[in-house]
Design brief:
The chain is mainly alpha-helical and 399 residues long. It contains 19 helices and no strands. The protein starts with a helix and ends with a helix.
Length: 399
């Protein structure tokens, strides 16, 4: 892992883009810890909060619909630079919302901007993999997980010294904007136009299967993000300073797994990793649901993190290498289901929780991750071959 990280850091443009991945989770972990306070301040029930969270997938769908127009005109680096700064502003307003309409508008904008940011960052990583003839995708996603772990730990420390979430997000966002400005040269240097105005093609059943796997993986991650703090507070009766530890354990596991992911994928193959990861995530959610005490629940979330860590990098790399389809369209095909899972999944959990309780609601994820493992087993694009040593994305070799 250390060798992989060392060589990654030496590629400055890759490091700059990797930081953008961590930006999303640095902001998101503060959001996770802020949810209980927002729920109380704006007088949401589990059901009404879950319904409100549906605005983010609606925004993501809007982003998907305009993505081909955006990326046929705007260079990918220019969008990354401005898009991630915009994300910081949206998150500050969202956590500091003074009423429900303001909160709803921020959730909608969050979904749209996050989708477009995801397209630009992942497409750039795919371009750099080919340019530098080495795998970078899993490491960049590892940066995302690292950001979540750091930010969750930071939230615990700031709560301990009585700094509320509304100021935590301002501090973190300011540091992010300064760092993005410092990387301006490397980001704006990415001048590729990533959509060629090709005719859109309907996805095959195999691609839809991959989209389903992506949906489940994102659903698991979104539910850990949006409901783990509430689960610790309302079910396990955790003190306020500990409510972020479930997400922190998840993020640490995701970080370790993803920073080793490029090496593992080159040796094991995508099918084995996705199937084994799905089974491990299912057992992790089972552990969380049955956990009698906080440490056991944290262990469950850690298993979920290790189980989900490599699935998304595998699928995102595949999305950028579908023959006859532009990077933007490929990303949309695979990740539309993923973003719906990430953003709508927590809403589904909220509806079920309203009727049956949060523990039973989270049990849905046990079944969903098992189904994802079955879909991976049946998918012909996920193979057990080792990747070639030259470092080119394996998906180019199997399509």
């Amino acid at each position: 892992m250390l060798k992989n990280i060392s060589s990654f850091i030496k590629i400055k443009p890759a490091l700059a883009v990797g930081f953008l991945f961590s930006t999303s989770s640095l902001l998101f972990a503060i959001w996770v810890a802020a949810i209980p306070g927002i729920k109380e301040r704006l007088a949401f029930s589990d059901g009404s909060l879950g319904l409100s969270l549906l605005l983010s997938p609606l925004g993501a769908i809007t982003g998907m619909l305009i993505s081909t127009k955006v990326f046929s005109k705007i260079p990918v680096g220019k969008w990354m630079y401005h898009g991630y700064i915009a994300l910081c502003g949206i998150m500050i307003l969202q956590i500091n919302s003074i009423n429900r309409p303001m909160f709803w508008l921020c959730l909608y904008c969050l979904g749209g901007v996050s989708f477009l940011n995801g397209v630009s960052a992942n497409a750039t990583v795919n371009i750099m993999e080919k340019k530098y003839s080495r795998l970078l995708m899993s490491t960049c996603h590892g940066m995302y997980s690292l950001g979540g772990a750091v930010s969750a730990g930071l939230a615990v420390l700031l709560f301990a010294i009585n700094i509320p979430s509304r100021w935590q997000i301002v501090i973190v966002a300011a540091a992010i904007v300064i760092t993005i400005f410092g990387n301006k040269k490397h980001l704006l240097g990415q001048k590729d136009i990533i959509h060629s105005k090709s005719d859109f093609k309907l996805p095959s059943l195999t691609i839809l299967g991959m989209s389903f796997i992506c949906m489940v993986s994102f659903m698991a991650e979104g539910c850990v993000a949006d409901w783990s703090a509430l689960y610790f507070k309302e079910v396990l009766h955790s003190p306020k300073t500990f409510i972020s530890l479930g997400y922190a354990g998840f993020s640490v596991a995701m970080t370790i797994g993803r920073l080793n992911g490029d090496t593992l994928l080159s040796k094991i193959g995508s099918k084995r990793i996705v199937i084994a990861g799905s089974l491990l995530a299912s057992f992790g959610f089972l552990t969380v649901v049955l956990a009698p005490i906080i440490p056991v629940a944290i262990a469950g979330y850690i298993m979920v993190g290790f189980g989900c860590c490599c699935t998304v990098p595998v699928l995102f790399r595949a999305s950028a290498n579908i023959p006859g389809v532009s990077t933007v369209e490929g990303f949309a095909m695979i990740t539309t289901g993923g973003l719906i899972g990430f953003l709508a999944g927590p809403s589904v959990i909220g509806f079920i929780s309203e009727k049956a309780g949060l523990s039973k609601a989270l049990s849905l994820l046990i079944l969903m991750t098992l189904l994802a493992g079955y879909a991976a087993w049946r998918n012909k694009f996920l193979i057990d071959k080792k990747m070639d040593d030259i470092g080119l994305p394996y998906d180019e070799q199997i399509y």
